Amino acid sequence: MIEIMLDWISKSQYPLFLAPMARFTDTVFRQLCKKQGADVMVTEFVQADAIIRGDDRLWETVDFTESQRPMGVQIFGSEPTNMAEASKRIVQKIKPDFIDINCGCPADRITSMNAGSSLLKDPATLGKIIASVVSAVPNTPVTLKIRIGWDDRSINAHEIGAIAESEGAQMLTIHGRTKAQGYQGDANWPVITAVASNLKIPVIGNGSIASAEDVLKIKNETNCAGVMIGRAALGYPWIFRDIKYSLRTGKMPKPISLPERWRTIIDYTEKVMLRSYSKERHLDIKWMRPKVIALTKELPGSRKIRTELGKVIQIDDLRKLADLHIQHFSEHNYFKSRNQK
């Protein structure tokens, strides 16, 4: 019988995970989400082979602060021995709370390496990877993130879940879409629910979660031990605050004011720039536009903001844009037009 070492799941009322999203969930964004109520963090994924080659840039990707714990590092790869060795090096160097194996990324550049969601088509190799990593880091929990299958004709989350449990994985996160779906269409929550009902290890549900109401429904209607939130947090990191408040009171909190949202966006931008090793990046924030665009997606008039962000070069330009936007939208108009994108 597996001894579950994830004590932070049982200690939380209903743990909220921030999903690992490449190029977006850096340590500054994770800290922002932690402040808003996210319980568990997972780094952007790193390639096991690159860790073994000694690519020092990857250590910046998996860097985290003590306040962000419980914190997992997500790795991907296709070779059991290399996945095990990379996990061992990560545990020795930064001591994460768990190692998460990525078997869900649908990007072609990842699946072409026989990694990510392509492992769903090769359960035997996936089982060997899990067993190797578990053996390599016996005192660190190993978890797994998957999709429900490669496509609609090969949904095998039940089989993969059983393999994960039998090989020693401590937790399974299921994104309720297939690789073929990418991020289109609705997540298949009946499959997630069925798998969660059949496993002894905790199952975390992921996909199509956009509000506190969605989480309350999942909590009441499934056996999921918690939820993982991804894209909804990029545009609205306060979703964790809303969920926590709703779980506690059954009501929704007062919306975040427009000035506060802009203060957060500017503060986030400044902190990311300060962490950059490139002197040019300290002055020019064009490279930050995708991150800022993600954070402004849920603001009123966001289409126009995206256009204006194309002209932003320095942090002062961003401050001016924020001031103009706040002046344009009074508090009344802001809340009235939140859905007018």
Account of the protein in words:
The longest helix has 18 residues, at 258-275. The N and C termini lie far apart (51 Å). The protein has 341 residues and is α/β, with parallel strands linked by helices. Helix 7 runs parallel beside helix 8 and helix 15 runs antiparallel to helix 16 (302-309). An eight-stranded parallel β-barrel has the order 1-2-4-5-6-7-8-9, surrounded by six helices. The chain has 18 helices and nine strands. It folds into two domains: 7-249, TIM Barrel, CATH 3.20.20; 258-336, no CATH class. The chain has helices at 7-11, 27-36, 48-53, 57-61, 80-94, 108-111, 123-136, 157-166, 189-198, 212-221, 231-235, 239-249, 258-275, 279-283, 289-296, 302-309, 315-328, 331-336; strands at 16-18, 40-42, 46-47, 71-76, 98-103, 142-149, 171-178, 203-206, 226-229.
Sum this structure up briefly.
This protein has an 8-stranded parallel β-barrel with strand order 1-2-4-5-6-7-8-9, surrounded by 6 helices. The chain has 18 helices and 9 strands.
Secondary-structure topology with pairs:
Layout: H1 7-11, E1 16-18, H2 27-36, E2 40-42, E3 46-47, H3 48-53, H4 57-61, E4 71-76, H5 80-94, E5 98-103, H6 108-111, H7 123-136, E6 142-149, H8 157-166, E7 171-178, H9 189-198, E8 203-206, H10 212-221, E9 226-229, H11 231-235, H12 239-249, H13 258-275, H14 279-283, H15 289-296, H16 302-309, H17 315-328, H18 331-336
Parallel strand pairs: 1-2, 1-9, 2-4, 3-4, 4-5, 5-6, 6-7, 7-8, 8-9
Helix pairs in contact: 5-7, 7-8, 10-12, 13-17, 15-16
